[in-house]
Amino acid sequence: MKILVIEDDPSVRTLVKAVLEHNGNSVTTIDNAKEGESSAVENDFDMIILDLGLPDGDGYEVCKNIRDKNVSTPVLILSGEQETDVKVKMLKVGADDYLTKPFNTEELIARLDAIKRRSEKAGDQMLSCGELRVDLLKRRFTINGEEVQLTNNEFNLLVYFLKNKNRVITQEELAEKVWDIHFDTQTNYINVYISYLRKKIREHSDVDYIETIRKKGFVFRCE
User: Fold this and answer.
1) Contacts of 95 (CB under 8 A, 6+ apart)
2) I need a surface site. Which of 84, 90, 159, 208 has the fewest CB within 10 A?
3) Are residues 109 and 141 in the same domain?
């Protein structure tokens, strides 16, 4: 895994880097909040290990800011703080786990492996296209991190589009696969729901993802 370690204590930073590299990981270390946050946003890491007490900021703000910027990389918090309310606060802001200092290096590796397994499992429940994100488990749709409310039919339609992006889908296919009914050429309900969905996406995005292909159907463009 590619792991980012944001930790200002040189002894802890050196220890964590050595342990992680010994276990076959590629490690980048940063000792301050500002550079750590920038690196987390600009680079593609598999995991972030984040200290709460940083010289130029709070790990809480770093975690909150990267989540606000739609960075979904798993975050493990390292901290000397043992109070339950601190742990709860970090988990609520988007951290995936919390390890109290001093810690056993075997537990560190075990927790990272557990986070990785959970993330891989959760990945099966997520669909994405550009700025669009759909959580199948929570039935939640977001654009640039902002939740967009959909009706049940709109959500099911969007999910089918995302699972079949970049190909022409006929109205007959949508009727059968989304609504489980035979398509009636005399009705206009599929076009109506597509119009609803397109309108809600355009209220939060400049991209028109749904393209109408005359006499053929629709394509959900996701380049």
Assistant:
1) 50, 63, 75, 76, 77
2) 84
3) no
What the block records as the tokens of 163 is: 């699972």
50: nearest Cα among 37, 69, 41, 38: 37
Q: What is the largest CA-CA distance in the chain?
A: 72
* Residue 184: predicted pLDDT: 65
More confident residue, 82 or 192: 192
Q: Is the distance from CB of 52 to CB of 59 less than 8 angstroms?
A: yes
Task: Identify the bridge partners of residue 43 per DSSP, sorted by sequence position.
Answer: none
What digits encode the pLDDT tens for the residues 123-137? Answer: 568 888 989 999 887
State the residue range of the domain holding 107.
2-123
**Hey, what are 141's tokens?**
């749709």
22 plus 34 within the same structural domain: yes
β-bridge mates for residue 181, sequence order: none
Question: Cβ of 158: how many Cβ atoms within 10 Å?
Answer: 25
Same structural domain, 102 and 8: yes
Same-domain status, 62 and 159: no
